[in-house]
Write a structure and sequence with these properties.
It is a single chain. By secondary structure, this protein is of the alpha+beta class. The chain folds into two domains: 5-80, Ubiquitin-like (UB roll) (Roll); 85-166, [2Fe-2S]-binding domain (DNA polymerase, domain 1, Orthogonal Bundle). 36% of the residues lie in helices and 14% in strands. It has helices at residues 26-33, 78-83, 92-99, 109-122, 128-134, 146-159, 169-174; strands at residues 5-11, 14-20, 52-55, 58-61, 74-76. It has a five-stranded mixed β-sheet, sandwiched between helices. A hairpin with a 2-residue loop joins strand 3 (52-55) and strand 4 (58-61). Helix 3 crosses helix 6. It is elongated and about 60 Å long. It binds FE2/S2 (inorganic) cluster (FES) (2 copies). One FE2/S2 (inorganic) cluster (FES) binds at residues 41-44, 46-51, 61, 63.
Length: 176
Protein backbone atom coordinates (compact mmCIF):
# COMPACT_ATOMS: atom_id res chain seq x y z
CA UNK A 1 0.00 0.00 0.00
CA UNK A 2 1.26 3.52 -0.85
CA UNK A 3 2.18 5.64 2.12
CA UNK A 4 0.31 8.96 2.14
CA UNK A 5 2.26 12.19 2.23
CA UNK A 6 1.39 15.66 3.54
CA UNK A 7 1.99 18.38 0.94
CA UNK A 8 1.80 22.10 1.70
CA UNK A 9 1.51 24.83 -0.90
CA UNK A 10 -0.06 28.22 -1.44
CA UNK A 11 -3.28 28.05 -3.42
CA UNK A 12 -4.78 31.33 -4.58
CA UNK A 13 -3.08 33.14 -1.70
CA UNK A 14 -4.01 30.63 1.03
CA UNK A 15 -1.70 28.16 2.75
CA UNK A 16 -3.08 24.73 1.91
CA UNK A 17 -2.21 21.31 3.33
CA UNK A 18 -3.32 18.11 1.68
CA UNK A 19 -2.61 14.45 2.32
CA UNK A 20 -2.10 12.52 -0.89
CA UNK A 21 -0.78 9.30 -2.31
CA UNK A 22 2.56 9.77 -4.08
CA UNK A 23 0.91 8.95 -7.43
CA UNK A 24 -1.84 11.59 -7.17
CA UNK A 25 -1.93 14.21 -9.93
CA UNK A 26 -2.22 17.89 -9.03
CA UNK A 27 -5.41 18.30 -11.08
CA UNK A 28 -7.14 15.66 -8.94
CA UNK A 29 -5.95 17.26 -5.71
CA UNK A 30 -7.13 20.68 -6.82
CA UNK A 31 -10.57 19.45 -7.83
CA UNK A 32 -11.25 16.72 -5.30
CA UNK A 33 -9.38 17.77 -2.15
CA UNK A 34 -9.19 21.56 -2.50
CA UNK A 35 -12.63 21.74 -4.20
CA UNK A 36 -11.30 24.12 -6.83
CA UNK A 37 -13.20 22.74 -9.79
CA UNK A 38 -12.29 25.58 -12.17
CA UNK A 39 -9.40 23.63 -13.71
CA UNK A 40 -10.99 20.97 -15.93
CA UNK A 41 -9.91 17.49 -16.93
CA UNK A 42 -10.10 17.10 -20.68
CA UNK A 43 -7.53 14.50 -21.61
CA UNK A 44 -5.19 13.80 -18.67
CA UNK A 45 -2.44 13.31 -21.23
CA UNK A 46 -1.12 16.90 -21.50
CA UNK A 47 -2.78 17.61 -24.84
CA UNK A 48 -5.81 19.83 -24.22
CA UNK A 49 -4.75 22.47 -21.67
CA UNK A 50 -8.11 22.52 -19.85
CA UNK A 51 -6.26 21.85 -16.59
CA UNK A 52 -3.83 24.79 -16.97
CA UNK A 53 -2.89 26.61 -13.76
CA UNK A 54 -0.17 29.05 -12.83
CA UNK A 55 2.57 27.28 -10.91
CA UNK A 56 5.51 29.24 -9.49
CA UNK A 57 5.06 31.87 -12.19
CA UNK A 58 4.71 29.47 -15.11
CA UNK A 59 1.77 28.00 -16.96
CA UNK A 60 1.54 24.32 -16.13
CA UNK A 61 -0.88 21.64 -17.23
CA UNK A 62 -1.80 20.30 -13.82
CA UNK A 63 -2.41 16.78 -15.16
CA UNK A 64 1.32 16.57 -15.84
CA UNK A 65 2.41 17.19 -12.24
CA UNK A 66 2.31 14.99 -9.19
CA UNK A 67 0.90 16.79 -6.19
CA UNK A 68 4.04 16.00 -4.21
CA UNK A 69 5.91 18.22 -6.68
CA UNK A 70 3.82 21.15 -5.41
CA UNK A 71 5.47 21.15 -1.98
CA UNK A 72 6.24 24.81 -1.19
CA UNK A 73 4.85 26.01 -4.52
CA UNK A 74 2.60 28.94 -5.32
CA UNK A 75 -0.39 27.83 -7.35
CA UNK A 76 -3.10 29.95 -8.91
CA UNK A 77 -6.24 28.58 -10.53
CA UNK A 78 -9.00 30.38 -12.40
CA UNK A 79 -10.68 30.89 -9.01
CA UNK A 80 -7.67 33.01 -8.05
CA UNK A 81 -8.03 35.04 -11.22
CA UNK A 82 -11.65 35.75 -10.30
CA UNK A 83 -10.51 36.88 -6.83
CA UNK A 84 -8.24 39.45 -8.47
CA UNK A 85 -11.19 41.24 -10.08
CA UNK A 86 -11.56 44.76 -8.76
CA UNK A 87 -14.69 45.60 -6.73
CA UNK A 88 -16.27 42.15 -7.05
CA UNK A 89 -16.75 42.48 -10.82
CA UNK A 90 -15.09 40.49 -13.55
CA UNK A 91 -11.37 40.32 -14.15
CA UNK A 92 -10.40 41.96 -17.45
CA UNK A 93 -9.86 38.55 -19.01
CA UNK A 94 -13.25 37.26 -17.89
CA UNK A 95 -14.90 40.41 -19.25
CA UNK A 96 -12.96 40.06 -22.48
CA UNK A 97 -14.00 36.46 -23.09
CA UNK A 98 -17.63 37.44 -22.45
CA UNK A 99 -17.53 40.57 -24.62
CA UNK A 100 -15.72 38.95 -27.54
CA UNK A 101 -17.62 35.63 -27.33
CA UNK A 102 -14.38 33.80 -26.62
CA UNK A 103 -16.28 30.77 -25.39
CA UNK A 104 -19.17 28.55 -26.29
CA UNK A 105 -19.46 25.44 -24.10
CA UNK A 106 -16.83 26.90 -21.76
CA UNK A 107 -15.00 23.65 -21.08
CA UNK A 108 -11.64 24.96 -22.29
CA UNK A 109 -12.16 28.43 -20.80
CA UNK A 110 -10.51 28.07 -17.36
CA UNK A 111 -7.34 26.84 -19.02
CA UNK A 112 -7.52 29.51 -21.72
CA UNK A 113 -7.93 32.24 -19.10
CA UNK A 114 -4.96 31.03 -17.07
CA UNK A 115 -2.74 30.64 -20.11
CA UNK A 116 -3.72 34.10 -21.35
CA UNK A 117 -3.12 35.55 -17.89
CA UNK A 118 0.46 34.30 -17.88
CA UNK A 119 0.99 35.66 -21.40
CA UNK A 120 -0.16 39.12 -20.37
CA UNK A 121 2.05 39.01 -17.27
CA UNK A 122 5.05 38.42 -19.49
CA UNK A 123 4.01 40.39 -22.55
CA UNK A 124 1.37 43.09 -21.98
CA UNK A 125 1.16 43.99 -25.67
CA UNK A 126 1.34 40.75 -27.67
CA UNK A 127 0.82 40.60 -31.41
CA UNK A 128 -1.85 38.32 -32.86
CA UNK A 129 0.88 35.93 -33.94
CA UNK A 130 2.36 35.87 -30.42
CA UNK A 131 -1.08 35.19 -28.92
CA UNK A 132 -1.70 32.30 -31.31
CA UNK A 133 1.73 30.83 -30.63
CA UNK A 134 1.36 31.18 -26.85
CA UNK A 135 -2.13 29.66 -26.75
CA UNK A 136 -1.32 26.79 -29.12
CA UNK A 137 -1.21 24.21 -26.33
CA UNK A 138 -4.79 24.96 -25.31
CA UNK A 139 -7.41 23.29 -27.46
CA UNK A 140 -10.98 24.43 -28.06
CA UNK A 141 -13.54 22.30 -29.88
CA UNK A 142 -16.10 25.07 -30.26
CA UNK A 143 -14.90 28.53 -31.13
CA UNK A 144 -12.46 28.26 -34.02
CA UNK A 145 -10.07 30.34 -31.89
CA UNK A 146 -10.66 33.68 -33.63
CA UNK A 147 -12.74 35.10 -30.79
CA UNK A 148 -10.31 33.78 -28.20
CA UNK A 149 -7.53 35.77 -29.88
CA UNK A 150 -9.77 38.84 -29.94
CA UNK A 151 -10.58 38.32 -26.25
CA UNK A 152 -6.90 38.25 -25.32
CA UNK A 153 -6.34 41.43 -27.35
CA UNK A 154 -9.31 43.09 -25.58
CA UNK A 155 -7.98 42.10 -22.13
CA UNK A 156 -4.48 43.29 -23.02
CA UNK A 157 -5.86 46.70 -24.00
CA UNK A 158 -7.95 46.92 -20.84
CA UNK A 159 -5.06 45.93 -18.58
CA UNK A 160 -2.90 48.57 -20.27
CA UNK A 161 -5.54 51.15 -19.34
CA UNK A 162 -6.72 51.72 -22.91
CA UNK A 163 -10.33 52.13 -24.03
CA UNK A 164 -11.97 48.85 -24.89
CA UNK A 165 -14.86 48.11 -27.17
CA UNK A 166 -16.14 44.74 -28.24
CA UNK A 167 -15.70 43.81 -31.86
CA UNK A 168 -18.41 41.14 -31.68
CA UNK A 169 -21.46 42.04 -33.80
CA UNK A 170 -24.00 40.64 -31.28
CA UNK A 171 -22.51 42.56 -28.36
CA UNK A 172 -22.22 45.72 -30.46
CA UNK A 173 -25.91 45.43 -31.42
CA UNK A 174 -26.92 44.86 -27.78
CA UNK A 175 -25.21 48.08 -26.76
CA UNK A 176 -27.45 50.13 -29.09
FE1 LIG B 1 -4.41 18.29 -18.65
FE2 LIG B 1 -5.79 17.88 -20.90
S1 LIG B 1 -6.40 17.52 -18.83
S2 LIG B 1 -3.82 18.78 -20.67
FE1 LIG C 1 -16.12 24.63 -25.93
FE2 LIG C 1 -13.73 25.79 -26.00
S1 LIG C 1 -15.64 26.74 -25.72
S2 LIG C 1 -14.17 23.66 -25.92
Amino acid sequence: MNKKIMVSFELNGKETDVVVEPRELLIHTLREKCLHTGPHIGCETSHCGACTVDFNGMSVKSCTLLTVQAEGATVMTVEGLAQMAQGGGLHALQEAFMQEHGLQCGFCTPGMLMRAWRLLQENPDPTEEEIRYWMAGNLCRCTGYQNIVKAVQYAARKLRGETVETSHPLMTAAAH
